[in-house]
Amino acid sequence: MTVPTILVIDDDVQVCETIASLLARLRYACETAHSLEQGLAILETAPVDVVFLDVRLPDGNGIDALPRIRQAPSHPEVIILTGEGDPDGAELAIQGGVWDYLVKPTPIKQTTLTLARALQYRAEKLSKGGGGTVALDLDGVVGISPSMRQCFDLVANAATTEANVLVTGETGTGKELLARTIHRNSPRRNGPFVVVDCAALTESLVESTLFGHKRGAFTGAQQDRDGLVKLADGGTLFLDEVGEMPLAIQRAFLRILQERSFRPVGGTQEIRSDFRLISATNRDLDAMVERGEFRKDLLFRLNTVHVELPPLRTRPEDLKPLAIFHMNRLAEQYGVPAKGFATDFFQQLAQYDWPGNVLERSFVISGLEGVLYAMHLPQDVRIKITRASLARSPQTADHEEASVKLHDVTEGTSVPLPPLKSFKRLMEKRYLELLIAQTEGSLQEMLDISGLSRSHFYALLKKNNMTL
Fold first, then answer.
1. Which sign does the torsion angle of CA 229, 231, 236, 239 carry?
2. How far apart are CA 145 and CA 56, in angstroms?
3. How do beta strands 60-61 and 56-57 pair?
4. Half-sphere exposure (CA, 13 Å, Cβ side) for 66?
5. What is the pLDDT of residue 422?
6. With contact defined as beta carbons under 8 Å apart, do 29 and 3 qualify?
7. pLDDT tens for each residue of 98-155
8. CB 328 within 8 A of CB 314
9. What are phi and psi of 175, to 5 degrees?
10. How far apart are CA 334 and CA 228, in angstroms?
11. CB atoms < 10 A from the CB of 95, how many?
12. C-alpha separations of 346 from 227, 309, 352 in Å
């Protein structure tokens, strides 16, 4: 039986020695590293089963390095072991696929139990051939950021099963494209992919559209017609904007998911359909359930596997490759040479939230010119970007007023002091506003100046309801 190998990445020598002593008693092999660079070097050359990972390390943030660690040749499980418990950091770590998030000092019993469970899970995964990366057909899907790699991991897992999948994300994040990718990588790839636009369904026609009808079932029913559910037999049924499905039809659809059978309008016999269900929405279905606008039992059925697509503004690494991909495709479509990009084009594009076909409009506006500049962005987009930039500017009246209040407090002027927690939040938000203004939104400059990791920076933005 192979002895498991555990890697401890922590700059605290005492922590490394303590865990190494524990692992020796458990008869496990142990490697230690006091920096990310050392840890990643070990992962590239030695098989590792589990990594104990600190968050704050001399040469970087452990959570930021999660994708590289999990993509190492041995694809180890990761247990975060940190001295600073941070709810936002824990959320990012779990989203990054860690096994557990432990805060020092952690009782030996808990550490041992967590490690045992992680090793058991890994052994079962390896025995089923799940130890490596699944090769995916990602035609048309572009993303190199950690958040997109996590989505790809979920897609790989979902594609090999028959489980229902719920894809959520803002408008324009590519939910249908991801749904087609799951279908294309599944055993049903040779079957149909049938799209149901729930936003276009009307209560008067929804049953006929979904379930089909028999001749004479209603005025205009000249012949039998299969519904979309039947057309998806042997393939995938994709419910686009499922949050728009009328409440009246949700109960009937729930029965279809349970029984995989239905009765056409005007029919007397049940018809079966063997389909795999993928749904998508840009709405908060949990909130809709609370308001009584969506059935809780239906959401439970839809949400076996949940893939949340992050908006592009939170993954700037994907901006350039995505733009290049789409521009090359447009050049091929129009039969013209590929175009280049000026730096200001990406700088402006990074400040836009990407609804609509901005790239195609820019491509058309540029005409025969070989390089795309910010000037080629649609005028309404440039206006929106400028307005947003001015709204963030520290020269606005609101910011001036906030500065006066902060100055009064810090200079000891006789104004009522706010609670410490509120004051800290106000100062933190003000710092972020000044940081964004000073760097003109340059992510790398902001990280260099603030000393924050990428994940911590985005967590602070989210906490203060701010966006770039």
1. negative
2. 21
3. antiparallel
4. 30
5. 62
6. yes
7. 888 888 888 888 899 989 988 988 887 777 655 444 567 888 888 887 778 778 888 8
8. no
9. -65, -45
10. 34
11. 16
12. 45, 21, 10
